[in-house]
Design brief:
Distance between the termini: 51 Å
Largest sheet: none
Number of strands: 0
Shape: globular
Number of helices: 8
Radius of gyration: 16 Å
Number of domains: 1
Helix content: 55-70%
Order of helices and strands: HHHHHHHH
Oligomer: single chain
Strand content: under 5%
């Protein structure tokens, strides 16, 4: 039985996010996440509704495989056109796994804070989080939230 790239991508994006997965991470800069968010809206929305990837339950670290498959099909004009999208979507997935698992996503995203304020909030929550939130994960989530929910003074 042969599977197409589209089938493989569909399987990957429908896998449940795995809390506590040990994906090695670096903290992306807010500028990288901002660029990734803009590229995501521009590039991914060209071929399909943005709700498809935004509603997907992809474990942190899983977006690179999906983006490689999309790049091989010409999305974004190749790998360079997808720059930053993986960091943005992985950071979003980490937020979903670590924060939105307990908190209402819309309520979280309605808050406006600076990156430092988000980091303090996430670190406080990490003391209560069942699966724990490591320092790199906390900084990544804070960077993501500072981009999608910036304090008016820091945007």
């Amino acid at each position: 039985m042969r599977f197409s790239v589209a089938t493989a991508v569909l399987v990957l994006i429908t896998l449940p996010a795995i809390p506590g997965s040990s994906v090695e991470r670096r903290v992306p800069a807010p500028e990288e996440l901002r660029k990734g968010m803009e590229s995501f809206r521009k590039v991914c929305g060209t071929c399909h509704p943005l709700e498809i990837p935004l509603d997907a339950r992809v474990k942190p670290g899983g977006w690179e495989t999906i983006l490689a498959a999309m790049s091989s099909r010409g999305a974004g004009g190749g790998a360079a056109g997808l720059e930053g999208i993986g960091a943005y979507l992985d950071s979003r997935s980490l937020f979903e796994v670590k924060c939105a698992a307990c908190h209402d996503r819309d309520r979280c995203l309605s808050r406006r804070k600076s990156r430092d304020e988000w980091l303090l909030t996430v670190k406080q929550m990490s003391l209560r989080a069942e699966g724990g939130i490591g320092s790199v994960e906390a900084a990544t989530i804070a960077a993501y939230l500072s981009v999608v929910c910036p304090d008016e003074d820091s945007s």
